[in-house]
Amino acid sequence: xxxxxxxxxxxxxxxxxxxxxxxxxxxxxxxxxxxxxxxxxxxxxxxxxxxxxxxxxxxxxxxxxxxxxxxxxxxxxxxxxxxxxxxxxxxxxxxxxxxxxxxxxxxxxxxxxxxxxxxxxxxxxxxxxxxxxxxxxxxxxxxxxxxxxxxxxxxxxxxxxxxxxxxxxxxxxxxxxxxxxxxxxx
Amino acid sequence: xxxxxxxxxxxxxxxxxxxxxxxxxxxxxxxxxxxxxxxxxxxxxxxxxxxxxxxxxxxxxxxxxxxxxxxxxxxxxxxxxx
Lengths: 186, 82
Hints:
The structure holds 2 protein chains of 2 kinds.
Chain A: H1 9-25, H2 31-47, H3 58-77, H4 119-131, H5 134-145, H6 150-157, H7 161-184
Helix pairs in contact in A: 1-2, 2-3, 4-7, 5-7
Chain B: H1 2-6, H2 10-21, H3 27-39, H4 41-56, H5 70-81
Helix pairs in contact in B: 2-3, 2-4, 3-4
């Protein structure tokens, strides 16, 4: 049995624009960029509508296009991004590379409270991600939200594997510290 | 001698923790990391807390309802409909 699937482009904007816009806005900070990405998604879909294979639902087909547009955005933007340089880790570690007193991780004591079910965790994590530097944010979103492989992220953003690991390390240091300051101590 | 070979700093330990998560550490690095985390509460916490972050990031939803500007929405509609 095959399921008959057809596209209904005239309904796209009403049916999917809001959720695609939300999806994009959690990954790209600037609302202007997010609007462009969603517009590009619909336009590309419209141009490619004759090649739609009906193997995926209309909705997941549009999402796949949107995800590609988000990655494209990171690729195009990567040339303006500052590559990792000075030792940002110094905020957290002393001369002997041990934790500074103020930066030492504290017990959160939330693991049994199902933090993932709390709205605050996500709201604050999202704000913390948006506070990261451009290049860090791109890497974090691609790796942990879009679940891309490290190799392909390096390619898209034109960074070396060793830069990649430095960026991931810094993302984690910044995000952990930001959550501790703003969520745990709320 | 063995101590020098096996001892790593907290900066190195947290760096290696991220690589291990992706399966990119050597057996030797894993041993060093494990030894460090056995004696270092702070790095163990770092590991636990950042794992929580990386496992859940993909579930972020935008809780605030932010709508696209209506005029932009209409413009996109017009582009497809024309």
